[in-house]
Amino acid sequence: MFPIRDHNPSGRRPYVVYVLMAANILAYAYYTASYASPRALAYFYDAYAVVPAEVSHGYGFETLFTSLFIHAGLMHLGGNMLFLWIFGDNLEDEMGHLPFLAFYLASGIGAGLIHVYSAPGSMVPTVGASGAIAGVMGGYLLMFPKARVDILLVLIVYFRILTIPAFVMLGVWLAMQFFGGLGADPDQGGVAYWAHAGGFAVGLILCLPLWLRRGGPAFWNRTDGQPPHPESAYEYAASRIPKLPRKKRHPGPWGK
């Protein structure tokens, strides 16, 4: 299940989202080109990624920031930037540019600290903007729980685009992080599930003052959990991915 867009137009250009995306992409291009050998790249990760055992012993706190701009591969980078693009512009619109930047960084650092707490003895370097973007998703859930989100549902060879409320998509995603974290061994590396779940919680909590200023439950009652934009009021039906026309087969000598 992959989100591909939301039906929630923002009222102003999300310049901070643009800058964050550019910073992540340029950083990836720089260190993959500058540290071409696997050994050099491993040294780079050790220097700038979060290593929970180091942070829990009182040093390496700067990596809680630097790790937010490092990714383990193109799929990791692309997935994070897609989520930031879909959900980030609306929160930046609601918060303002600089408050959104502070919110994003605070969510990422908070996610990193929760990851350290969940695996204080782990020596596995952790990288990625996922914790910060999870915070954006938590704030989005609080502000726009019924915004319409298009997702690509993939079941082996079955592909379908569905439009579902944000609270369903984000709720399923959060449940996947929670149950994934229960079964994961932090000393083996892989997905930092608790960083994701923790970042989501941090973002939701940090967004509470904004939600309360908008009226809290009254804001939901007034908007029915929908984005406060008339353009988003349309209903979107499920749609299939267009099929490519198949090349016609020429009949053989036996008509097959």
From TrEMBL:
GO cellular component: membrane
UniProt region (Disordered), positions on chain: 237-256
GO terms for MF: serine-type endopeptidase activity
Protein name: Rhomboid family protein
TM annotation in the entry: 15-33, 64-86, 98-117, 123-144, 151-179, 191-212
InterPro entries: Peptidase_S54_rhomboid_dom, Rhomboid-like_sf, Rhomboid_protease_S54
Compartments it resides in: Membrane
Record-linked Pfam families: Rhomboid
Keyword terms: Hydrolase, Membrane, Transmembrane, Transmembrane helix
Family according to the record: Belongs to the peptidase S54 family.
Domain Peptidase S54 rhomboid stretches: 63-210
Biased composition (Basic residues): 243-256
Membrane topology: Multi-pass membrane protein
Principal location class: membrane
